[in-house]
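Students often ask what a holo structure prediction actually looks like on paper. The answer is less mysterious than it sounds. You provide the chain, you provide the ligand, and the output is a string of discrete structure tokens encoding the 3D arrangement of the protein together with adenosine-5'-triphosphate.
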Amino acid sequence: MQSQEVLLEARGLSRSVGSRQLWQGVDLEVRATERLAVSGPSGVGKSLLLRALAGLDVLEGGEVWLRGKPQAAWPMPQFRAEVMYLLQRPAPASGTVNAHLAEPFGFKIHGGKSYRPEEAARLLQQLGRPSAFLDQDAACLSGGEAQLVALVRALLLSPTVLLLDEATSALDAETAELAETLLQTWLDTGPARALVFVSHDRAQQERFATRIQLLSGVGV
Ligand SMILES: Nc1ncnc2c1ncn2[C@@H]1O[C@H](COP(=O)(O)OP(=O)(O)OP(=O)(O)O)[C@@H](O)[C@H]1O
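The corresponding structure tokens follow.
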């Protein structure tokens, strides 16, 4: 593992909310192919840490690097396309699943990429969904289905580091394991990639993480 390239690195991160210091002195390193679990009690600030890593929350203290280049030196849309954050409760707008998956390919930041519906169907099939699923209304999906679609949408965009914030929490056990297999294949093929995830499912952490980092509230 140590020979793998460091993709994402954070040093000395700190965060407070009002007068409450959530954590400080947080160091983190994610290497290619890693599946790093960030663990800690409810309210300790795991979501805020992932959001800070993704450039979606302020960096009060410390610094984050992607491939050795400081977060602040990246154009932020590009950084967020490379370090992609998936939240627990995605809420897609109305329109077909296919249209929802195709949508970001129309954004300037993903201009070099093209949407391939057959690839979307292939990924969905690996998650146990038939190709007709692409025609469903995205706004009417169940919580678990919306999580599957968010995951497929992210994988199609091929970020360097995927940050999953309880992003499989609404899936049944069997589908959650299909998602893990899909993610593992994604990590092990193609360019250098890595995964950071938060899960309250201890069994998932233990079977899926290559490493677990505890966020204790007083530095990790
Ligand atoms: N934008 C915000 N403004 C003020 N307080 C916030 C904000 N976001 C989060 N908090 C607070 O910061 C603390 C950490 O929140 P966070 O969601 O990161 O915790 P967590 O470890 O992910 O929790 P859980 O495991 O319950 O999801 C919580 O007390 C929360 O209420």
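The radius of gyration is 17 Å.
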